[in-house]
Amino acid sequence: MSYASEFCNYKPKEEAVILAIESSCDETAAAVVKGGRQILSNEIMSSVTEHIRFGGVVPEIASRAHTAAVSLVTDAALKSAGVTLADVDAVAVTYGAGLLGALLVGVSYAKALAFAANLPLVPVSHIRGHIAACYLGNPSLEPPFISLLASGGHTAVILVESYTSYRILGSTLDDAVGEAFDKVARVLGLDYPGGPNIEKLARLGSPSVPLPLMFKGEKTYDLSYSGLKTAVMNYRNKREMTGLPDDDADIACSFQQAAIGALVKRVEEAVDEFGILKVTAGGGVVANGYLREQLASACAKKSAQLFLPEKKLCTDNAAMIAAEGYIRYMNGEFAGLDLNACASVELR
Ligand SMILES: Nc1ncnc2c1ncn2[C@@H]1O[C@H](COP(=O)(O)OP(=O)(O)OP(=O)(O)O)[C@@H](O)[C@H]1O
Ligand SMILES: [Mg+2]
After folding, report:
1. Ligand 2 centre and the CA of 247: distance in Å?
2. Distance 152 CA to ligand 1 centre (A)
3. Residue (of 257, 148, 263, 239) closest to 199 by Cα position
4. Residue 238 shares a structural domain with residue 177
5. How far is CA 102 from CA 27, 94, 129, 343, in A?
6. Residue 160: closest CA among 287, 323, 284, 297
7. Which helix (H) or strand (E) holds 169?
8. Are 2 and 298 in contact (CB under 8 A)?
9. Is residue 343, in this structure, part of any structural domain at all?
């Protein structure tokens, strides 16, 4: 009998306590969440400062940092939740998408923990985790809703039909929006991760730099950030070559407005087309204050309800993995001890 099949007769508990582990990129995180929505603890150790001088995450450094941090973070999560493994009903873990070596640390650790404590092991997609972050702290939220996914590696407008069924209305054809923020930040000489630094600089500027409109005049939910990024690079190079004074704050402000305007426009169109008056969002870029304001005013205009995760639940964390893990646990979706890490996973 395989490990996963040992749990096929389990009885799902509404108030299940899920211990989740996340290690897909440069954050080692563990969290304890009750009933899929109530965060009992949410611990994170980041290796971001070790990557700054390289201008991006170095996979080998991230993996080593995860190895050093994973048991410390998990112990801290159990302790601050005031529980022991005996109180836990399942171990959820991010198995993809992300850096393979980094994911393997969390997956191996979670497997060992689940096996030792005889607990079900729940495999979770990091991307679905970002989408499920909206359930945390929002006890009344139920599908269907329109979800905006805006992270470092993914960008999509999604119709969440039920807890387990998603329809991708459109997604980026090239760069993700977070990746575009990071690349434009680099052009402007700002440190990684670029998103928060662009947001800060944008506050000092005005949206006066002319930038191309994405898919001008076309009705589509798809997105494309490579043209916008190239337009910023060309504009700045031309200014530098002609000896004009630096207007980086205006560039940051104009880029932010264009990048985020395209997202909000698509959310508004989805609300109109499907008549669904509930909107959520998830992923690191949703920590951006301008995006949050723009979504709020778009939803107010349409009389739609907006459910946003707290800013710290937008960037990578394990509470969101527990939120999605709970849905999978209730559905009886368990992994065996042969669970492997996957660098990319299907969005749907
Ligand atoms: N305030 C902000 N404004 C804009 N972008 C931001 C902000 N805060 C974080 N970001 C961006 O969010 C991204 C990180 O988000 P996240 O952790 O969700 O991505 P990831 O885990 O690298 O990718 P994925 O989740 O798609 O695998 C980075 O690109 C970062 O620049
Ligand atoms: Mg992420």
Report:
1. 31
2. 4
3. 257
4. yes
5. 9, 10, 17, 10
6. 323
7. strand 166-171
8. no
9. no
Collapsed DSSP state (helix, strand, coil) of residue 167 = strand
Average pLDDT rounded to a whole number, residues 249-272: 98
The number of domains in the chain is 2
| Amino acid at residue number 108 | S
Tally the residues of the chain.
Answer: 348
45-76: b (≥16 Cβ within 10 Å) or e: bbbeeebeeeeebbbeebbbbbbebbeebbeb
CA nearest to 194, candidates 232, 158, 222: 232
Q: Which of 172, 316, 317, 344 for mutating ligand 1's site (highest number of atoms within 8 Å of CB)? A: 316
Please indicate, yes or no, whether the overall pTM of this predicted structure exceeds 0.90: yes
29: helix, coil or strand?
A: strand
- The domain in which residue 97 lies consists of 4-133+316-330
Could you read off the pLDDT of 286-312 as tens digits, one per residue? 999 999 999 999 999 999 999 999 999
Q: What are phi and psi of 91, to 5 degrees?
A: -110, 120
